[in-house]
Amino acid sequence: MTDPYLPSEATILEAPTAFKERLKHLGPSLILSAAIVGSGELIATTALGAKAGFTLFWIIFIGCLIKVAVQLEFGKHTILTGETAMQAFNQLPGPKFGKANWSVWGIFIMMLLKLFQLGGIVGGVAIILQMVLPVFPVSFYAIFAALITSALVFRGYYRMIEKLAIYMIFAFTVFTLTSLYSVSFTEYAFTFGDVLSGMSFSLPKEMVLLAIGAFGITGVGGDEIIQYNYWCLEKGYAAYVGPKPTEQSGQNYKNEWAVRAKGWIKVMHLDASIALVIYTVVTAAFYLLGASILHRQGIVPEGFTLIEHLSKIYTLSLGAWAKYVFLAGAFVVLYSTLFAACASWTRQYSDIFGQLGWIDFFDFNQRKKSIAILAWAMPLIWAILFIFINLPVLMVISGGIIGSFILILVVVATINFRYVRQPAEFRPSKLYDLILLLSIVSIFSIAVYGLVQFIF
Fold it and tell me: How many Cβ atoms are within 10 Å of 249's Cβ, its own excluded?
């Protein structure tokens, strides 16, 4: 079995040049979309619309669009170096504590705090199951969902579930857009003027923390940008490019390697761009449904009434029958998030453990064992947190706030990748650099502003 984390001459594959052929190699960003839609879109975005009305619609677009340039630069670095995310962070300037760079420790600590967010997702899944089959308490279904997730990730049924989740998310997305269209025929119809009012860039003081949390969790988040690294590696992008040239490599190999690298970077760009369109459209739809229906009724989704309240964005636009379709769709969306997160987190934590010197991440057996153990431990921790806290929306939003600060570390790494370590022949156009700079400045500004507001 070829290890995608260890590029060799045997793994080399020429990059496709035709658009149709490139489509066959998409996947990493679609896996992220499966993780993004449940927490960021269904729960946090709809709750934000319910609380703020149309006022913060602009933050949704910024949250989705502004971070993709950083994701692209992160993916580019992965292809050019073949490094894992934590391996790359461990090479940033600054002090080391033990074997690991300060940034690795920072991500480790913040990911521990992000456990609450996934607890909220487990809670959403459990509430749906309890609504469908009210035989057992919600806590039972939380543990049940955790164990099923653990078993699937542990046994390695990822590809089958991934494909099924993507198809189901597509169907649920179409259903959501249909619901949004149907709102125009109800008393909750909104106008183009309402939408424009949400693009005025106003930010009421009482909405600051909620907006920061939404920015951190809508679109691709800081932890998801980091996890994009593992899916690019496991999809084979870096392995297909081959081992990075050394001083001893011949000029022919260097030239051929550069051509392959540029080709697979183009595939990665297409992958990220298609996913960007998907989650931006879905995010906007969820926000507008929350603002037009829930906000006007004064309903804010929270606690065990979370799913019941969220279902109103469908039942009040399509009819009472839509509640059952919503429950089925919401389960698929939330569970795909839970499953994708479990698969991603087990790899990220194993990578962290490798940089801390606790395991050898590049030893296939040690990596597989670490992922298996974490696959059982993490979902149970998420379920236990939900059972004790019982506030799924607050738990998800808190993860978004932490995600905003993880984004700061991701941006620091991106600056190092682009302006320090990137070979001259791979430097982008001035327009791309301008967009990247705008993304970096915006992320820093919003995260710092949120930190100041949070403290004072």
Answer: 12
Give SS3 for 422.
coil
**Count of all residues that appear for the chain in the document:** 456
φ/ψ region of 219 (left if φ > 0, alpha if ψ in -120 to 50, else beta) reads left
What is the spatial distance between Cα 150 and Cα 425, in angstroms, rounded to a whole number? 44
Q: Which residue has the tokens 């004064």?
A: 298
CA distance 304 to 390: 7
Q: Which residues contact 359 (CB under 8 A, 6 or more apart)?
A: 350, 353, 366, 367, 370
Copy the structure tokens of residue 348.
Answer: 């990220």
Q: Which two tokens stand for residue 108?
A: 């480790």
Tens digit of each residue's pLDDT (9 = 90 or more) over 14-31: 999 999 999 888 888 878
State residue 211 phi and psi, 5-degree precision.
-65, -40
State residue 239's pLDDT score.
93
Helix axes 102-113, 322-356, angle to 10 degrees: 150
pLDDT at 194 over 60: yes
**Chain segment 241-295, per-residue pLDDT in tens:** 999 888 777 889 889 999 999 999 999 999 999 888 888 888 888 899 889 988 8
- Both tokens of 213, joined, read 């949390």
pLDDT for res 456: 62
Locus of tokens 């913040």:
110
Q: Is the pLDDT of residue 389 over 80?
A: yes
Residue range 401-417: mean pLDDT, rounded: 88
DSSP for residue 417: I
Look up residue 41 and give its DSSP letter: I
Amino acid letter at 340? A
What is the distance between the alpha carbons of residues 388 and 183, in angstroms, rounded to a whole number? 37
Neighbours of 92 (CB within 10 A): 19
CA distance 354 to 359: 5
Q: Give the Cα separation of 15 and 196 in Å (integer).
A: 43
d(CA 312, CA 323): 8
What does the DSSP 8-state code read for residue 282? H
- pLDDT digits over 123-149, tens only? 989 998 998 899 999 999 999 999 999
Rounded to the nearest integer, the mean pLDDT of the chain is 86
C-beta of residue 440 within 8 angstroms of C-beta of residue 415: yes
Eight-state DSSP code of residue 134: T
Question: Please, is 68 exposed, middle or buried when counting C-beta atoms within 10 Å of its C-beta (0-12, 13-18, 19+)?
Answer: buried
Long-range pairs for 250-258: beta carbons < 8 A, 24 or more residues apart: 258/425, 258/426
**How far apart are the C-alpha atoms of 115 and 348, rounded to whole Å?**
13
C-alpha atoms less than 13 angstroms from C-alpha of 54 in its C-beta half-sphere: 16
pLDDT top residue among 310 and 12: 12
